[in-house]
Amino acid sequence: MPSATFSIWRGDRESGGLKDYSTEVSEGMVVLDAVHKIQAEQANDLSLRWNCKAGKCGSCSAEINGLPKLMCMTRLNTLPLDRPVTVEPMRSFPPIKDLVTDVSWNFRVKQGIKKFKPRPPDAPDGTWRMAQQDIDRVQEFRKCIECFLCQDVCHVLREHHHFDGFAGPRYFVHIAALEMHPLDVEDRVEELKKAHGIGYCNITTCCRKVCPESITITENAIIPLKERVADHFYDPLSRLFRMFQSKKKEGTHAGTETAAQGRDSGSAGAR
Ligand code: SF4
Ligand code: SF4
Ligand code: FES
Fold it and tell me: Is 184 helix (H, G, I), strand (E, B) or coil?
């Protein structure tokens, strides 16, 4: 069998570097197979995350020859094996050990996003009615496997380390799935601008290019969300409409209160 060399990053939070391993490879192997073979035969203490080996759990994210990819979905026959294949941890997140990174920041970001809030049921049996085209629109976003490769490649995080005040492409996809959901009535537009920093995204499309689920992150999620932010904050007609709506609500509320007070005093008089 032919052999190939893999330069695998070994190290921890303090220090580390690439170490070469040569191993036999065969037809149909993916990078994860080769790394497992090296782990079994030459480096028992090599740490890596994996679970499904089918591109569905999002655990085996790494940088292969400098590109963010899933190790289990990267076939060796797509790589030049006449020189060492580099396998490194995602650089945007702190290394824990070898190929394992600390991605817990992502989970904290998710906790800060307003949850799904459905409107009241449409029918007395507690069910809703939705148009198929509205469901189809958000279905794409539900394919996300939380591999965080898009977060890894985004320059706002990778180069500028803007971990405070920027949610990143994975969470713009998540917010788009909620905001465009036909039943959701929550409003996340203010947070999108202020807490989640969507303005820092300059639509480079790098995130879309690395997504293993081929989610059209920029065109279908980020750009429509940016349009909502622009409408909310910068469109004078939308602002006027919202002012009118809130005044109308205040008026209705005041009217309701007056009527309620009237009812209260009426019933108090009757007592
Ligand atoms: S398009 Fe926006 S979110 Fe995606 S990588 Fe570029 S800057 Fe980051
Ligand atoms: S949007 Fe794509 S690249 Fe980003 S976490 Fe989800 S599956 Fe991974
Ligand atoms: S092992 Fe699950 S995505 Fe690679």
Answer: strand
- Domain ranges, residue 69: 3-101
**Is 144 near ligand 2, meaning CB less than 6 Å away?**
yes
Give per-residue pLDDT as tens, 178-237: 999 999 999 999 999 999 999 999 999 999 999 999 999 999 999 999 999 999 988 777
Q: Which atom of ligand 2 is nearest to the CA of 173?
A: 1
Instruction: Give the model's pLDDT for residue 32.
Output: 98
Residue 90: the pLDDT is: 98
Distance 215 CA to ligand 1 centre (A): 13
Tell me whether residue 70 is in a domain.
yes
How far is 37 from 46, CA to CA, in rounded Å? 11
* pTM of the predicted model as reported, rounded to 2 decimal places: 0.87
Q: How far apart are CA 240 and CA 109, in angstroms?
A: 32
Asked whether the predicted pLDDT for residue 268 surpasses 50, the reply is no
Same domain as 224, residue 131: yes
Q: How far apart are the first and last CA of the chain?
A: 97
Residue 263 in this model has a pLDDT that exceeds 50: no
Q: Are residues 80 and 110 in the same domain?
A: no
Report the CATH number at residue 182: 1.10.1060.10
| Size of the chain in residues | 271
The count of structural domains within the chain is 2
CATH at 64: 3.10.20.30
Name the residue with the closest Cα to ligand 1, atom 4. 207
Give the position of tokens 């976003």.
141
Any ligand 1 atom below 6 A from CB of 156? yes
